[in-house]
Every structure is written in C-alpha cells, then in structure tokens.
Amino acid sequence: MYDVIIIGGGVVGCAIARELSQYRLSVALLEKHSEVCEGSSKANSAIVHGGFDAKPGTVKARLNVRGNELIRRLAPQLQFHFKQIGSLVVAFSDEDMEELKKLYDRGIANGVPELELWDREKTLAEEPNLSPETQGALFCGTAGIVCPFGMTYAFIENAVENGVELICDAEVTGIKKIGSGTGTDGAAVQTRDGAAQTVTAQTSAQESGFSVTTPQGVFTARYVINAAGLYADKIAAMIGDCDYTILPRKGEYRVLDKVCGDLVHHVIFQAPTKMGKGVLVTPTYDNNLLAGPTAQDIDDREDTSTTLAGLNKIDSSAKKAVPSLDFRKTIRTFTGVRARPSTGDFMIYASKQAKGFIHAGGIESPGLSSAPAIAEYVAELLRQEGMALIKKPHVITGRKGIGQFSAMPNKERATLIAENPLYGRIICRCETVTEAEIIEAIRRPAGARTVDGVKRRVRPGTGRCQGGFCTPRVLEILSRELRLPMESIPKSDKGTEIVLGKLKNPVESKSRSGDSSKHSR
After folding, report:
1. For residues 311 and 254, is the Cβ–Cβ distance under 8 A?
2. Binning pLDDT at 50, 70 and 90, where does residue 445 land?
3. Is the CA virtual torsion 478, 484, 487, 492 positive or negative?
4. N or C: which end of the chain has fewer CB within 10 A?
C-alpha cells in the first residue's frame, strides 16, 4: 500500500509529486497517457501570470500570486526555462482604461507587486508595434513566459529522483474505499522498463484507504489526490463527490516563425471579457510568437481540432493589438481545452464523502502559474487530514537540465563535441538539436518514451518543417535506446504508432540492391 496515490500527470500532479517527494512517504503517480504533460499542460499560453486578474479572496487569487513567486525561485533551482518579461493589458478606449483601473485595484488587493498604469506615450515607447489606437496599459513586472513542458518535466524528474514511482498508461477506471475488516489485495503491475512485478497490499481497519483500478493493475493507498485535469469531476464521482462539474472550454492558437519573435517584448493582453483574458500575443521562451487563444465552450473534452473560424478570430483580434502581425509566418496551429469549473474557482479541498481523498480539480488559467502553490496547499490539506509529513534527511532539491546546444557559444559546442561526438550529429536542422540531446532526453529519470515526448523535451520537430526531416531519425534513436521495434514507438499514446510494418525484409532488400548494382555495371 502506498501512502499517497496522485491521479494525473499534468503540471499540477507533477508539482504535487515533487512536493510530497520531500517527505518520508511512498508516493505513486498514475498517468493515463504514455507520458506526463499531456492534456491542458501541453497546450496553453505558456504564461506565468502576475495575479491581478483573479477575484480577491478566491483560491485562484491567493495561489496565483504565491505560484508566481515560487516559479521565479524554482526556475534556476530546477533549471527549467523562464523569463520574467512582464505583461501589458492594453486599452483602446476610455471604457478599457476604466477596466484597467479596476484590474490595478484588484491586483493591489491580491498583493501583486510591480503594478503600474502606463499612459499612451509610455506604452508605445516600450512596445512601438502596438496599434496607434492604444490609449494606455496596465504593466505587471512579475509576469513572465515559461516552457510548460520543461517545468512539468522538471517537477516529475525531481520527484522520481526522490523516490516517487511514475506509472504511465494507467487510466483510472474505478476507486473504492477499503479498510473495513482484513484482507489482502494483490495486483500485477508493470514498471516503466516493462518488467512485471506483483504488489501486495495488506489492509485492515487501522490501515484504511482506497483501491484504485487501472489497466496496469489495482493499486492501494492511504490517501488519494485527484489531479485529473479535464476529468477531475469524473474521478470525483467515483467516490460520490459531485460538488462541481468540468465545463470544457476550447482555445485555438497560432505559432509563428522565430523571425516574428521580436515583434513584441512583453506578454500583450487586451482588456478582458467574461469569456476570459482574450486573445493575447506573446513571445515564447524559444523566441517564436504565440497568438491566441479563442474561447469556445464545448461538450467534447477531447476536441482539439483547429477551425477556420477560430483562426480567423485569432487573426482579427490579435491584429487589433499588433496590426503588423503576418500570419503567413504561421508554422503550426493547435488547440488546448481548459478545465473550467462550474463553481468559477479552483476546487482544492478534502472530500467530506471519503476521508483521505483530496481534490485538486477545476484548474483552469492561471493553473500553470499556480501549480507549485497548489502543491504546497495540497500537502497542507494532507496534514490536516492526518498525514504525518516528516522531511527526509536527504532530499535532492535541485536538477541539472538538458543543455541546449543551439544556444551555446561555438567554443562550448566544440568542447562538447570533443567529449561526445554525438553532439556533432545534428538530427533536427530547424532547431539545431543533436543526437546527444535526444539520447539524454530518453535516458533521464521519467525520460521520453514517445516522439512527442522527445519533441517537448529538446525541440526536434518544433521548427519550420515541423518534423518532416527529423521524425524518422528520432524514431530510430528511440527504437535503439528503448530496445523496441520502430513499429512499437508511438507519436504520443498507444495507437498512434507512426511505423505500421516493413514492406521488405531489410537483408533481402539489401541483397537485391547489391545484385542490381552488379548488373548496372
């Protein structure tokens, strides 16, 4: 029996895993996908919000401000990519200026530092590519941009190094309260390396908890944390909690080429509406430009399609703020689905139906910004529920990130190539990603197991050709490192394998090729 099972390997679940890994606890994280950082965690605006938007007194408001502070502290410690570039909420009318004053007052009430109201001259001096219709802006100096994949991977890698067990392809299909009487539950599970092992859990009246059913087996734990993102309400219903419903909201985005990355230097918002913070324009950490999202309430939680209507909405709305945007420079479009709660606030609380069950649901924006603060809060809820949180004597608090070859000076590159010639083999030409970086992404704790997992860790396939050149080479490296046939390597999840089979026997094909070359002479 584990002390804690976390359901969901998004940024919130992984942040919770890292937080709990500091204590003398046995912790398992169950993720339904083949990798962590799927769902909303992989498809969002990649912004660390300052915290002025949330209504004062809400859980969102408190955890956004605290989360912003923690991310700025953790980024160098865990070596994930974060830039504190600040944000601007831009006004185009007198009504918008009144809205900015309300946001400023709200931010002050929430305890947000570095807030300023700028006039037209100051705003256009800082961002000359904004619309000439600009009347002013609200500046937030603590806002920034982050690599959401990198932050999530940093959390889970650090957690695994400190003893957390990550179990993927483990969608939760049932949860039961256990502990009345005495019994033994045995479950066959599969570890990350594919080896089978049997976990036997002895439960008694004194050691009550939960049994969690997945395709990987049945797992038991004294406490369960629900961080299941878009499906948090479905998980909650398994134990009889129906306090909230997830109302999925779809947001479409455009990613522009790096030649557009310097068009703006802050995160550019427009005055918000009841549908959200509106269409934004922002540089990304890797110097692309991101425009979006739209906001469309949907029924299908898996609807990640992009539409002509949605992209046209981005174009018209984004150009209101930045008229010189050239959407012909788009290299990718994508859609994320936000886990909007029916209550309007984060649903982070201990269940009244089942003692020991903690909810971390309804985590929409600013969930990415709030993730490490949510983890702190969940740990405190566990303590209040009776969990003894005793710090380990030796905790790995830091993490060494994967060096980015493309960002290194030539002298450093030459040194690396001399030490490891695989740094001299470029796999992704668009992003200058080397074979050595890809191998490290696979071999790390909680390392890549899919093509998309490699892509999100070290960026092959994120450039202009979107993987047209490098995907076969990434497949070959994954196959070799994982000792699996290429037919078994998925793009993202099981069922998304890229190679379905071989047309010819390689030896036979080579032999025939040799015969042909003889005849051609």
Report:
1. yes
2. very high
3. negative
4. C
Residue 197 pLDDT more than 70?
A: no
Fold held by 2-40+149-244+344-385? FAD/NAD(P)-binding domain (3.50.50)
* C-alpha atoms less than 13 angstroms from C-alpha of 355 in its C-beta half-sphere: 8
Strands 144-146 and 47-48: antiparallel
Q: In this predicted model, what pLDDT tens digit does every residue of 235-257 receive, in sequence order? A: 999 999 999 999 999 999 999 99
49 included as an active-site residue = yes
Cα angle at 254 between 293 and 233, to 5 degrees? 40
pLDDT in tens, 372-399: 999 999 999 999 999 999 999 999 999 9
Give me the mean pLDDT over the 120-130 stretch.
Answer: 98
340 and 249 Cβ atoms separated by less than 8 Å: yes
Residue ranges of domains in the chain: 2-40+149-244+344-385, 87-141+246-341, 405-488
User: Residue 208: exposed, middle, or buried by beta-carbon count in 10 A (0-12, 13-18, 19+)?
Assistant: middle
Coil, helix or strand at residue 407: helix
Q: Is the dihedral of CA 319, 320, 322, 324 positive or negative?
A: positive
Distance between CA atoms of residues 375 and 40, nearest Å? 17
Which fold would CATH assign to domain 405-488?
A: Arc Repressor Mutant, subunit A (1.10.10)
Q: Characterize the bridge pairing of strands 289-292 and 280-283.
A: antiparallel
Q: Which of 33, 49, 81, 359 is catalytic?
A: 49
Nearest alpha-carbon partner for 452 in 29, 11, 30, 35: 35
CA–CA gap between residue 465 and residue 383 (Å, rounded): 50
Residue type, 105: D
Topology of the domain comprising 87-141+246-341? D-Amino Acid Oxidase; Chain A, domain 2 (3.30.9)
Cα(100)–Cα(104) distance, rounded to whole angstroms? 6
pLDDT tens-digit map of 315-350: 999 999 999 999 999 999 999 999 999 999 999 999
> How far is the first Cα of the chain from the last one, in angstroms, to the nearest whole number?
70
Nearest to 141 by CA among 156, 126, 162: 126
Q: Would the pLDDT of 219 be above 90?
A: yes
Pairing of strands 289-292, 217-226: unpaired
**Residues contacting residue 92 through CB under 8 Å, at least 6 positions apart:** 131, 133, 134, 135, 270, 271, 320
Residue 171 is classified by DSSP as -
Dist. CA 472–CA 412, nearest whole Å: 28
Q: Are β-strands 174-178 and 183-190 bridged in parallel, bridged antiparallel, or unpaired?
A: unpaired
